[in-house]
């Protein structure tokens, strides 16, 4: 992983256009190609580009150079053509680190129970579905549940207690990998959680991922008194 602290501005062009004005930010470039821009508060990035994407460094034009820009970084998504133009004004820190293979999040408590209960009640996701396996292994980590759809294809389910953008990104990476396997494709995605944040629902909808809100008490056989959303 490469970590850069720099004064930069970021312009995104694609499905919509956005602009991050000049400020000091942490730029993370991960081994899988992910590029993310963070500020000093909140855990979610201000903007990012998910793989497959490429980063090229360009010499700034005369206008940018006269404004103090040292480099232009252009991050382009290989499939969609979406692009980030990063203007680097000053680099305060630049380091690279080999993190090795991560064992992934070890789940316990409610989240592990949700996964177990959902594996026993896959009809919560849809009628006629059958469980292929819990913790289905992939090269980038296990998928919580893999289900077989009788109409064809499979469904990958990511289970969270509280669903946020990071969970949607995680499921997106699994889907990109699983859909390369002709024995599984087409693979649809379901993001299941007790509570799903509005931003996560928006991102999931944009990625073609269905969201399912889980009633933990109801799945345990205890009525919670809250209306079910499935």
- Give the biggest beta sheet: 7 strands, antiparallel
Net shape? elongated
Would you identify the regions where 5 or more consecutive residues have pLDDT less than 50? 222-230
Biggest sheet: strand arrangement: 4-3-2-1-7-6-5
Q: N-to-C SSE series?
A: EEEEEHEEHEEEHEHEH
Protein name: Endonuclease NucS
Main location: cytoplasm
Pfam families: NucS_C, NucS_N
EC number: 3.1.-.-
Properties at a glance:
230 residues, alpha+beta, seven-stranded antiparallel beta sheet, 5 helices, 20% helix, 41% strand
Structural account:
Strands 4-3-2-1-7-6-5 form a seven-stranded antiparallel beta sheet, with no helix packed on it. It has a five-stranded mixed beta sheet with strand order 8-9-10-11-12, with helices on both faces. Mean pLDDT is 91; it is low at 222-230. The chain has 230 residues and is α+β, with helices and mostly antiparallel strands. The chain is 20% helix and 41% strand.
Quick description:
The protein is α+β, with helices and mostly antiparallel strands and 230 residues long. It has helices at residues 62-66, 109-120, 165-178, 198-206, 216-220, and strands at residues 2-13, 18-29, 35-38, 47-49, 53-58, 71-77, 83-96, 130-136, 143-148, 154-163, 187-196, 210-213.
Please describe the topology of this protein.
Blueprint lengths: L1 E12 L4 E12 L5 E4 L8 E3 L3 E6 L3 H5 L4 E7 L5 E14 L12 H12 L9 E7 L6 E6 L5 E10 L1 H14 L8 E10 L1 H9 L3 E4 L2 H5 L10
Parallel strand pairs: 10-11, 11-12
Antiparallel strand pairs: 1-2, 1-7, 2-3, 3-4, 5-6, 6-7, 8-9, 9-10
